[in-house]
Amino acid sequence: MAGKSPIPFSKPKVELHVHLDGAIRLKTILYYAKKRKIQLPTENEDELQKLISCSKPSTLTEVLLKFSHYMPVIAGSREAIQQIAYELVEDKANEGVIYFEARYSPHYLANCNVHPIPWGHSEGDLSPDEVVKIVNQGFQRGQQDFGIKVRSILCCMRHMEAWSTEVVELCKKYENDGVVGIDLAGDESMDCNSYPGHVQAFEMAVKYGVHRTVHAGEASPPQVIREAVELLKAERIGHGYSIIKDPLLYKELLLKQIHFEACPCSSVLTGACDPDYTKHPIVTFKRDKANFSLNTDDPLVFNSTIHTDYIIAAEYMNFSEAEFMAMNLNTARSSFLRSEEKEELLHQLCKAYGME
Length: 356
Prior knowledge:
The chain is of the alpha/beta class. About 45% of the residues lie in helices and about 15% in strands.
């Protein structure tokens, strides 16, 4: 869809939900496959795109399997990890995004040998701590070269409870070096009550003053969203589409101004939402003046840019320019930036939107 319609909103944008490992350039994958002598199913860019990307509604499980085709090329490589971080900043700058928060699992990118899909091909011992340093370096270079701001969110994984304490400790360690929050991603059917390590990690995050977002309500019922807010003290919800199935909980979160990180294109291609965008939960969010954002999620896998999602919102959800502006201001307010930086970002947006 990107490129087939005029861009409906060309003013500066803010994005809060994009996965670093789901936002890699095809050329970069092919380059490091050749450099690291890792065999890919194809060396043709178009064929690789077809293999990696989703072009029609699927399931979240099938979508996640796409990562196994290319992550062996990146995981465990210091050079590749820094490069994908740097290139993501350039890509977002080219999309008119002036601030974004990118999330990733330090353990996955470190090529930890307990990964459910063993990547192999490690260049040597690379710790999750080193991964965070390397990503920070890539983002810092990108900020200097492309003039926009980026921060990191570190992901815990639902099926890897043993990693969670280390993840929150890394959030605390690098709070002054670009890391602004913690996330919980993975199989939403896994009840956190049965995995106390996640609960303990998020309790630590609260104690440390680390901001919290949780993937919930994408491929799971509203109860998982309630668990995220009440048990894990989430300030934002990744996706959250199923919330409208529980009117009482939805009303409660509306009153609390809990932010929903919505991803229109992603939500349909993962099978989370009806393919008819006019029936999407975002339409309800907009009508009810909920606190939400528009995001790409995994632009490599969905063969999209932020423009794809804005075009969907304009063409099928009747977003006006005024609504895009109001949404971006809410997005900035819900960012995990420090207060003074948040005020600076809001000032920048208001000036660009002609509100000053």
